[in-house]
């Protein structure tokens, strides 16, 4: 029997009419013979209102334990109303909050920004399967957890997304559906550009980067629990139908879920282009990269400074890249000269945990510093760090930084 985890955001249950529509959409899937676990956020703006009241009443005097318990009231109210709405439609439902034995989300004791104890959560989640087998629809508080002492914890703002994907993973669901106030993931913010279009599909890696850089559609931390074998999509609440099309979230790729350190087997060459204050000259970067693209030369990396642009290419392409970029330098008065540098090694360190690991770059670079290995260049994203060192230092640097992930 197909199992769905459906998460409803605060706006999608923002009033009684929307809650009724959401409940009907759940019951509709249930009547098709599917098992459904519901995750709900606090009703629209409830958490913000509670935080404002706390600030006015106590300011800094509130303890973390008190604050976690207070803000949890938004989700605890939502599950009770939503579960009752389902039962009003003639289907059995039970709300699940952190005070109950069936509560599945177990965390550490960082009360306001807790980390999930995955092993304990996976074990406790099986309690929900017992309810599902009895024909009951569980409605679970999003955003909340419980620590080993029985205290309520919170997963941080947007934590309901984490709850949904985490339960999907632990219960081996067939699909996770995120119901929001938008019809899916857009090509950009439609409030800023009228030409924004809904995407039919987006990869986990793209979605994570988009969310980390400010898109409010989905919490980026939730995606580390996205199982490659589980379907997932984002839909708008206005449909009132969990089968409605939205944006499908693809992946992640199997190799993106593991921690890896790789050393590029071939040397990388550096071409440095210089000119006075070229960072402030529009179009310079486009001229350089376009020239290489027109001649099918791949750019492995690029960095910019106030007076320089450094481009990394495969060693086999270095002489041709040097010649082509020299033509650009000669033709542009804003550029003065360029140089073809020494061979360097490229080491890539990847982990889905980097996104919420403070100080990871320091951890990676420390063993290099301790062994007097110079870093030529470094770049990073939400899930990877790329280090360039002298080619002769490549193997040693690789061995040193590989231990960071172990």
TrEMBL record:
<keyword id="KW-0067">ATP-binding</keyword>
<dbReference type="GO" id="GO:0009088">
    <property type="term" value="P:threonine biosynthetic process"/>
</dbReference>
<dbReference type="GO" id="GO:0005829">
    <property type="term" value="C:cytosol"/>
</dbReference>
<keyword id="KW-0028">Amino-acid biosynthesis</keyword>
<dbReference type="GO" id="GO:0009090">
    <property type="term" value="P:homoserine biosynthetic process"/>
</dbReference>
<dbReference type="InterPro" id="IPR054352">
    <property type="entry name" value="ACT_Aspartokinase"/>
</dbReference>
<comment type="pathway">
    <text>Amino-acid biosynthesis; L-methionine biosynthesis via de novo pathway; L-homoserine from L-aspartate: step 1/3.</text>
</comment>
<dbReference type="InterPro" id="IPR018042">
    <property type="entry name" value="Aspartate_kinase_CS"/>
</dbReference>
<dbReference type="InterPro" id="IPR002912">
    <property type="entry name" value="ACT_dom"/>
</dbReference>
<dbReference type="InterPro" id="IPR045865">
    <property type="entry name" value="ACT-like_dom_sf"/>
</dbReference>
<dbReference type="GO" id="GO:0009089">
    <property type="term" value="P:lysine biosynthetic process via diaminopimelate"/>
</dbReference>
<comment type="similarity">
    <text>Belongs to the aspartokinase family.</text>
</comment>
<dbReference type="GO" id="GO:0005524">
    <property type="term" value="F:ATP binding"/>
</dbReference>
<dbReference type="Pfam" id="PF22468">
    <property type="entry name" value="ACT_9"/>
</dbReference>
<dbReference type="InterPro" id="IPR036393">
    <property type="entry name" value="AceGlu_kinase-like_sf"/>
</dbReference>
<dbReference type="GO" id="GO:0004072">
    <property type="term" value="F:aspartate kinase activity"/>
</dbReference>
<dbReference type="Pfam" id="PF13840">
    <property type="entry name" value="ACT_7"/>
</dbReference>
<keyword id="KW-0808">Transferase</keyword>
<feature type="domain" description="ACT">
    <location>
        <begin position="273"/>
        <end position="352"/>
    </location>
</feature>
<dbReference type="InterPro" id="IPR005260">
    <property type="entry name" value="Asp_kin_monofn"/>
</dbReference>
<comment type="pathway">
    <text>Amino-acid biosynthesis; L-lysine biosynthesis via DAP pathway; (S)-tetrahydrodipicolinate from L-aspartate: step 1/4.</text>
</comment>
<dbReference type="InterPro" id="IPR001341">
    <property type="entry name" value="Asp_kinase"/>
</dbReference>
<dbReference type="InterPro" id="IPR001048">
    <property type="entry name" value="Asp/Glu/Uridylate_kinase"/>
</dbReference>
<protein>
    <recommendedName>
        <fullName>Aspartokinase</fullName>
        <ecNumber>2.7.2.4</ecNumber>
    </recommendedName>
</protein>
<keyword id="KW-0547">Nucleotide-binding</keyword>
<keyword id="KW-0418">Kinase</keyword>
<dbReference type="Pfam" id="PF00696">
    <property type="entry name" value="AA_kinase"/>
</dbReference>
<dbReference type="InterPro" id="IPR027795">
    <property type="entry name" value="CASTOR_ACT_dom"/>
</dbReference>
